[in-house]
Amino acid sequence: MSKYQEVTIEVDGIKVKGQITHRSEPDISITISSPYQGLSNGLHIPYFSRPIHSFLTEYGDRTAENLLKYLYELGSYMEENIDFITMQMYMHFHDGDYSSSDSQDRFFDSTFPFTVPIGTREEVLRQLK
Fold first, then answer.
1. Which residue of 47, 59, 85, 95 has the smallest Cβ count within 10 Å?
2. 33 near 27, Cβ under 8 Å?
3. How many other C-beta atoms can be found within 10 angstroms of the C-beta atom of residue 39?
4. 85 shares a domain with 33
5. Whole domain around residue 122: which residue ranges?
6. What is the pLDDT of residues 95-113, one digit of tens each?
7. Is the pLDDT at 1 greater than 60, yes or no?
8. What CA–CA distances, in Å, run from 52 to 12, 46, 65?
9. What is the pLDDT of residue 2?
10. How far apart are CA 18 and CA 10, in angstroms?
């Protein structure tokens, strides 16, 4: 797999597609395109681990697939729990103000049963507005 290459996996019988948007030795980013859109995620390898790992190898291929699976699970959770998530938004974001990082932390910690990376949070909020 290379930069801008389509990635396709199957999760629970569902065909999931995404695209690698950035790929270098220490960094990789992927965006989901089907069945959900507008969510992306990425990882960074610290310099002291680069002699062992690189996203330009098969390790990067597997990482891209794992990140895509995570994005699918996030999108699926959001779709299945939209009523609960909407209620939580009203509780944590008064008057539609999403700017407080403390409110965002409380919202994500109490709403999702898994960690939503900081880099993905803005995309999640944009989808829910």
1. 95
2. no
3. 23
4. no
5. 81-128
6. 888 889 999 999 999 999 9
7. no
8. 32, 11, 20
9. 55
10. 12
Do residues 93 and 70 both lie within one domain?
Answer: no
Instruction: Please give the single-letter amino acid code of residue 73.
Output: E
Residues 53, 91 share a domain: no
Model confidence at 46, pLDDT cuts 50, 70, 90, reads very high
> Do residues 64 and 20 touch, judged by C-beta distance below 8 A?
yes
Q: Are residues 43 and 93 in the same domain?
A: no
Calculate the alpha carbon distances from 98 to 45, 103, 126, 129 in Å: 30, 7, 10, 10
- Nearest CA to 66 among 46, 34, 41, 37? 41
* Amino acid identity for residue 103 in this structure: S
What would the two tokens of residue 56 be?
Answer: 């330009």
Helix or strand (DSSP H, E) at 42: strand 40-44
- pTM over 0.70? The answer is yes
- Helix ranges (H only) for the chain are 58-80, 82-92, 101-111, 118-128
User: Is residue 18, in this structure, part of any structural domain at all?
Assistant: yes
